[in-house]
Amino acid sequence: MTNANARTTITTVTLNAAIDKTYYMPAFVKGKVSRAAKVVSTAGGKGLNVARVLKQLGHAEVAATGFAGGYNGQFIVNGVKEAGIRSEFVAIPGESRLCMNFIDEGDGSSTEVLEPGPVIGEDQLERFKRELQRLSAESALVVFSGSLPGGTAPALYAELIALSRAAGADVFLDTSGESLVRGVTALPSFIKPNEDEIVSLLPDSHDGDLREGIRKLMAQGIPIVAATLGAEGAVAGAGGRIYRVRIPKIEPVNTVGSGDSFVAGYAYGHVRGWPIEECLRYAAAAGSANALSETTGDVDPREHARLLREIAVEEWL
Ligand SMILES: Nc1ncnc2c1ncn2[C@@H]1O[C@H](COP(=O)(O)OP(=O)(O)OP(=O)(O)O)[C@@H](O)[C@H]1O
Ligand SMILES: [Mg+2]
Predict the structure, then answer these.
(1) How many angstroms does the Cα of residue 287 sit away from the middle of ligand 2?
(2) Which atom of ligand 1 lies closest to the CA of 260?
(3) Which residues contact 207 (CB under 8 A, 6 or more apart)?
(4) Which of 94, 148, 159, 221 could pair covalently with 187 via S-S, beta carbons 3.0-4.6 A apart?
(5) Can you tell me which atom of ligand 1 is nearest the CA of 285?
């Protein structure tokens, strides 16, 4: 018999995976030829950040799925495998996205160019759903992260959440805008809105009372709501209680992917059945450790352990 508690795999879903390519140049001038001194390419996408950080934190069984197409798709799949993550990406026609970031080392500016990515056809989506069903049936937890690809409906996450849950997996959702608003109607176990995302979830809450907002979301049937506030830590709700997560002041290097790292840290504790306070501490330490690294979705376990000792979680009465 399948016992959900005996499952250890965490599956992350990245429907809009990309190659993140960063060009470091002495100067970037619009309309002129610029020469890059250094180029760094990584397999990108929010779910892949979660998967990578889970591995860095020491979770053994991590699988990653989504769509991968063309040479870029092959690069993404190779990157996933090199990180020790099981690649379960569904091959699609066309080319996965390339997202370019031009860093001007003179003035420190960053100029991004983001490709739209391939449009997903009906057949490919059906194939993906079958894959997700199979993976969910062996996973303790499925984490859905990031934006939806072109050609898909904004309610897609709601449908996928229902599918994973029916296969016996627990479900987390971390996305934004319309896909978040529609996704929460399927009542994922955990959501992690940042400051902007909280506003889109609670458009009528003008009073800015975060505690009330979190209580409303819990009343809708979402068991764990973690609102992350960047350098200000986080406020979370679970089991009818509200918690304040206080983090130490650090000198951030690159905070992109700190939310994804927070999700990874929370997932690590959640599948182990840790108490909420411990999950939140682990999560916030991962978010802050990521902010100390130049690379997106990168947690040094030693920094994580050090930060963990400096984070306090208390009930906010
Ligand atoms: N400047 C910072 N200093 C210290 N810790 C930070 C900082 N920024 C983020 N963190 C840590 O990371 C967590 C998540 O950050 P944040 O609220 O910025 O997520 P996010 O906007 O969803 O990020 P992303 O979507 O890029 O992954 C915070 O709760 C905190 O623990
Ligand atoms: Mg985020």
Answers:
(1) 10
(2) 27
(3) none
(4) 221
(5) 31
